[in-house]
Amino acid sequence: MNALEDKITPIRKQMLIGLHLGNGYGSQPGAWRMPGVDPKSYTSFDARVKQAQAAERGKFQFIFLPDGPGAILADIESESPAFNLDVMMTLAAVARETQYIGLVATGSTTFNEPFNLARQFKALDIMSHGRAGWNAITSSGDDVAANYGRRIPSSEDRYGRAHEVIQLIQSLWGSWGKDAWVHNTESGQFAKREEIISINLQGKFVGSRGPLYIPPSEQGQPIIFHAGGSPNTHELAGRFANVVIGAAFTIEDARDQRNAFREAARRFGRNPDEINYIPGLMTTIAKDRRTALDRRILLGRGSFTKRISYLQQMLGVPLDASRLEDPISKTLLENARPSRYDPRSAHALKIAQEGWSVRDILAHGVIDYHPVIVGPGVEAADHMQAWFEAGAADGFWVSPDVNSDGIDAFVDEVIPILQERGLFHKEYAGKTLREHLGAPDQYGVDPRI
Ligand SMILES: Cc1cc2nc3c(=O)[nH]c(=O)nc-3n(C[C@H](O)[C@H](O)[C@H](O)COP(=O)(O)O)c2cc1C
C-alpha cells in the first residue's frame, strides 16, 4: 500500500449528500410558477447563493451543477431551461457567501480547451479555499455540439480526448509543487522557480506546455467527479474520479452500478473505497402523503393529461384521460404488467395497486428521472438508509421539487433523522471538499495511474 492509499478512510460509515442545483427553481418544470417563488430566479445569482446556504445549513457535502453546455429550448414557452447561466460564475458567487460546502460544476472535456478548464477550476479552488470539484463529462448529443458548429464526435474519440484532457489538467494543477509559493517579503523570494515546472504534454487530441501560474489550494487541487453509465464511463471514472453522479431506480441496479465503478477503480490499482457512487433522489417533503401529493398536483398543473399515454405503456393497460380522478379498475389492474422497457414500471404498478387515482399515481412522480419521495421526511430517510446499508449507494444527490422551500424542508425534516440514526455527520469534519469526502490531498496526476 502506498502513501496515498494509506490516507483513505477505509469504509464509509456515513453517507454523503449533495444538492442538485440546476436552473435554481427546482427539479419540477412547474417550479418557477409556484407560490412564493420569484419567477425571475432563473437569472438571479442571489437565489443560488441562498439555496447553497440552505444546503450548507444542512451540512451537505457539496452542491452539484449540471451543464450541457447549452440547453434545448424546445419547451421555452412554458418551462425554464434546466441549467445555470454559467456554472463557474454561479460557483464564484456561492464561494464568497459560504464556508464549508463543496462546489462542483460540470465541464465538458469535448468542448473546452484543457488549459481553460484547468485555470478556471483551480481559480475556483483557490477562491473557495479548497472546495472545488470538476464533473468531467464528455457531452453527448448533437444539440450541444451544434452550439460549437460541430457534430458530436464518436464515443471513442470523446473518451479518448477525455482521458487526455483530465491527465493534462491534473498535470497543470500539479505544475506548482506543494511549497513552491513562498512569498517571503524578507528574502524577496516570491516563488521557487525549480518547483514550478512546465508539463510539455502532447497527446493525440490535446496538448499543453504549461506550467499553470496558480499555486496549490488548501486541498491541493480539485476533486474529479464523473457522471454516466456506459463501459467507457467506468474506465474514465475508475482512473480519475472520486465521486460518480449516478441514476438508478432500484437497489439492485444501483448496487450493480456501484460495484462496476468499484471494480474499475480496482483495475487501475486504486482502493475501491476511493470512488463514491451517488445515485439521485427527488423529493417533495410535506407533513403527510396527501399534502405532498397535492403540492405535486399544483406543480404539475395541466401536464398530467399529457403523461397518461406514457403511463399506459408502463402498465400495459388503456387509461381514460378524462377520468384522472378515478383509481384504475380491479379488472384492468389484474391485466396490468410492468413494461420491461422501463425500469420505473414495477414501482408505478405497485402505486396503482395501492388504489390511488390516476392523477395521484402520476403525482407520485412515477415517470420522473430518479426515485421520488412524496411524503414526510421519514420516508426519504428510510429510502436512503435502505440503499446505503444494501451497498447500493455511498450517498445521494438530492433534487428538491422547488428549491425556495424544498431544500429547507429536506434540511429540517430528513437530515435530523439521518443524524439521529448515525447515518449522516452532524458537523463538517474539515473545510475542504477532500476532507468532506475522506479523499487525500493531491498534487498533479495520481502516481499510481
Ligand atoms: C446522473 C447523470 C448526470 C449527468 N449529468 C450530465 C451533465 O451535467 N452534462 C452532460 O453533458 N452530461 C451529463 N450526463 C451524461 C453523461 O455524461 C454521458 O454523456 C451519458 O451517460 C451518455 O454516455 P456516453 O457519453 O458514454 O455516450 C449525466 C449522466 C448521468 C447518468
From TrEMBL:
Biological classification of the source: Bacteria, Pseudomonadati, Bacteroidota, Sphingobacteriia, Sphingobacteriales
Flavoprotein found in the keyword field: yes
UniProt xrefs under SUPFAM superfamilies: Bacterial luciferase-like
Every Luciferase-like domain range: 38-392
Protein name, entry field: Nitrilotriacetate monooxygenase
A molecular function (GO) term: monooxygenase activity
Keyword Oxidoreductase attached: yes
Keywords: Flavoprotein, FMN, Monooxygenase, Oxidoreductase
